[in-house]
Automatic annotation (TrEMBL):
This is MoxR family ATPase. InterPro entries: AAA+_ATPase (IPR003593), ATPase_AAA-3 (IPR011703), CbbQ/NirQ/NorQ/GpvN (IPR050764), ChlI/MoxR_AAA_lid (IPR041628), P-loop_NTPase (IPR027417). Pfam families: AAA_3, AAA_lid_2. It comes from Natronoglomus mannanivorans. PANTHER family: MAGNESIUM-CHELATASE SUBUNIT CHLD, MOXR FAMILY PROTEIN. Residues 294-323 are annotated as: Disordered. Residues 21-162 form the AAA+ ATPase domain. It comes from the Archaea.
Amino acid sequence: MEQVLVGNEAAIEHLTIALLTRGHLLIEGVPGVAKTTLANLFARTTSLEYRRIQMTPDILPADITGTHVYSEETGAFSIQRGPIFANLVVADEINRATPKTQSALLEAMQERRVTIEGETLALPRPFMVVATQNPIEMEGVFALPEAQRDRFQFKLTIDVPSRDHERELIDRFDDDPELGPDDVSQVVDIGDILTSRETVSMVHVAPAVKAYIVDIVDATRSHPDVAYGASPRATLAFLDGAKARAAIRGREYVIPDDVKALAEPVLVHRLVRSTDAELGDVAPVEVVDDVVDRIDPPGAADVSTEPVESGADDDSIPDPSQS
């Protein structure tokens, strides 16, 4: 993917974690920062069938899920499947669609199935939604309902690239103006993905780390700047995401750093701020940082299932005395 992308390593990792844990991703950013290209590249490298839905105010739920179509030749109705029937579905600029249309994704994202006029159909396996949205301050957008936001495992914010990255970008496209998703190669197939999912599910999570996850989520519900905290779905997002992050780094067990690294993408879109916090312009990310700072992580002896080797990398378990 980095043959085309510049400076989006974190987004690539979160896409991978979501794919390995049956999650969905919400990506926010101003136009032109490669949000849709990111998803297209990811689909091509992972052999996933890719469909893109351009969300607009006039699009209807049936334009996403499908409908029954009458055939004059047979005199009967048949199902016309919508673009939701793919492995990786991009809902581009999701917050430009009305809440009614946004809700067409709810059943698909939670239950991996779609009901079309009373008939329920299973979606392909694997199935993943990547939704992009413009910042809510822009004109012509509808904020996603809480139930919709809660179904996204992660929310990422793609910023404008740094000066160095932008210079590398123009050099790269100056050399090859036609550079795009067609230039990347498939590196895994669906069988590899399903096998990797099984590997991730076997990663060990110690009771102390599970308690740490629950403490963080519970702290969002009593924070003074939060009217409604994170749901149990956030707790499971932490658990699954931390397992995948550990496996990607070659570990068979989760450490507190895996949980802390996922706190912002897991929680930032799920918190409903109090009126005072909104008036005081307290950002959700500030609340998340405060929650994580308040909760003490477990020590090394409580989380590891095997000895910690000396000279470990940055993901090694921290000294409890310095927590």
